Amino acid sequence: MKRFIFILFLFLVTDTTITQAFSSFQNDFVENEKKVYTVVEEMPSFKGNVNTWLISHLRFSKRTIREGVYGRVMVKFIVKSDGKLSDFSIYRSTNHELDTKVLRVIKKMPKWNPGKHNGIPVSCYYILPIVFCPQ
């Protein structure tokens, strides 16, 4: 009888420990889904050449080209764990005339390869610098 009670006690202790560990794992997973990293082991990347994509999608009026509008726009956004982009904003800009055009085009970008932390895809901030110079 003592042996039975001892085995039952071990089972209950082990079961409680496993349940707590699993609960902790679930909480970590949910927390990581909501967390947006600023630094990860593997940064997000565009599928293909981001410069080629931007050149083919940015359109400027003849006036803009004639006036030789130039400058640097840095766009900040989140690359989610599924590769979708969200939360777009101008991080820094030297030419506010370009901001609206850049944001409009960046919002149309296809999915990226997400950043990875400990080998797991996570949401991550990304800052994309775009430089315009007259040709």
TrEMBL record:
Pfam families tied to this protein: TonB_C (PF03544)
Keyword list, A-Z: Cell inner membrane, Cell membrane, Membrane, Protein transport, Signal, Transmembrane, Transmembrane helix, Transport
Domain TonB C-terminal span(s) in chain numbering: 45-135
SUPFAM superfamilies noted in UniProt: TolA/TonB C-terminal domain (SSF74653)
Signal peptide, first to last residue: 1-21
InterPro entries named in the record: TonB-dependent_transducer, TonB/TolA_C, TonB_C
Broad class of where this protein is predominantly found: membrane
Family per record: Belongs to the TonB family.
Name recorded for this polypeptide: TonB family domain protein
Organism whose genome encodes this protein: Prevotella veroralis F0319
Lineage per the UniProt record: Bacteria, Pseudomonadati, Bacteroidota, Bacteroidia, Bacteroidales
